Amino acid sequence: MAEADSNWSADANACLELSLVEPSADGFNTIARFNPSFTYPIFGDDERIFGYQDLRISLRYHVADMRPHLKVKYGKKFRSVGATEPTDIEGLLREHLPAVAFSNNRDFEDAIRQLPQDWVPPGEVVSEFDANDGGTFEVRRGSLTDLAVKQILNRIQILVLFFIEGGSLIDTEDSDCDRWDIYFLFHRSNRDGASGAFKYRFAGYSTVYKFFPLQRYPLGAKAEPRQDLELPAQEFPLSGLRSRSRISQFIILPNFQKTGSGSRLYRAIYENCLRDPHVIEVTVEDPNEAFDDMRDVTDLLMLRRKPEFTALKLNTEIRIPRQGAAPRGVVDEVKAEETRCLYRIAPRQFSRVLEMHLMSKLPDSVRPTLAEETDRPRPTKAETHEYDLWKLFVKQRLYRHNKELLSQLDRSERIDKLNETLGSVELEYARLVALADRRGPDMASTGKRKLEDDADGVSHPAKKTRVDDS
């Protein structure tokens, strides 16, 4: 029976192929083909499809406006026996794709041929940067209340399930659509034989949600109480309220990865939020390791260009007592918080990037690196003291974050756990600082520059941290 089941069971990730196509003079060109990383949100935890032999599922996208077309082919289909039935492939995919994806092949091809040559993606251009092939990447921002933006998002949302583990879709019919900003990344090139017309290829996108905090912004002036305050009689625009912008979904298509486009899309989102006086903080929802790496490197390179940030230093005048409470003010806390608020970075992220930067400024004799330590110069007493201050600065944050856990341990165990975590943090920071130093010349530029790599290519060694650094 098990053998029979295996003959009718297919690996969903392997048999589902996504492709990007565009019309050409003699038919259609396939720009890229790739398989999903995950299909369990659609086909179940085992990512298997039952009831077919020689199964092929093709999900084609028009590379410009991302109009989808689904086609399911198979050699044989299992004949239902009682409650045992073949997987309803189209039925499951209808829950995540718009109705247009289930039109016939001719309708799909006719529709994409009829797209006007002067078609441009929806949204306003907020950033541009050069592509390695001579084209240009555009970052376009639009509101989910824009019907053209909503149409494209409905077509591509299934990519979240395919490429983001644990990802979920946005309800595009929800009443809070005005809280969502959608950032599209398109590759733009000159269209052959069409003067002034461009050819667009979809490369990725990100969604950003606005939260409206109740507490006062730390740097804002305290308002005097008013006796004549009245609620607005008409509809009140949320755009006039202070908000936190949270990056919720972030996808770069596989054929555009390793081009630097991910970091530039993130940077475009951040800089656009920074230009909005109502945005008080930019946060990220549940980032994975690859996104964390890209974000860390991009934030570090950006902040290194800011004088308020580079002015933050370890106070080497502070002495560390052998016993008693650890000293405060290893780094000026007021100036650090002012800088964080000025550049609207979330507290934990700012602390980590500041720790990386300060570590990178330690003397060679004590600075943690990934290189062999045989050639290190012998540290002076002052250099050792500076390193001890940096370690104390990091440990203070780790302790605050893990206070409940650490408070359950005795003093010696607590010290061991902090030292163990600190060692992992040092290795992680050394890797990220080295990565930032390699990418610095291109990433630091605000103009159009070519980027040769992207954080998607960073390897992620296993972490030994026992005390959480999150």
UniProtKB/TrEMBL annotation:
Catalytic residues of the enzyme: E285 (proton donor/acceptor)
Catalyzed reactions per annotation: L-lysyl-[protein] + acetyl-CoA = N(6)-acetyl-L-lysyl-[protein] + CoA + H(+)
EC number, as in UniProt: 2.3.1.48
Keywords linked to the UniProt accession: Acyltransferase, Cytoplasm, Nucleus, Transferase
Domain (Histone acetyl transferase HAT1 N-terminal) ranges: 8-165
One Pfam family this sequence matches: Hat1_N
Localisation: Cytoplasm; Nucleus
Residues at which acetyl-CoA binds: F250, I251, I252, Q257, K258, T259, G260, S261, G262, S263, N288
PANTHER family: HISTONE ACETYLTRANSFERASE TYPE B CATALYTIC SUBUNIT (PTHR12046)
Function, in words: Catalytic component of the histone acetylase B (HAT-B) complex. Has intrinsic substrate specificity that modifies lysine in recognition sequence GXGKXG. Involved in DNA double-strand break repair.
Protein name: Histone acetyltransferase type B catalytic subunit
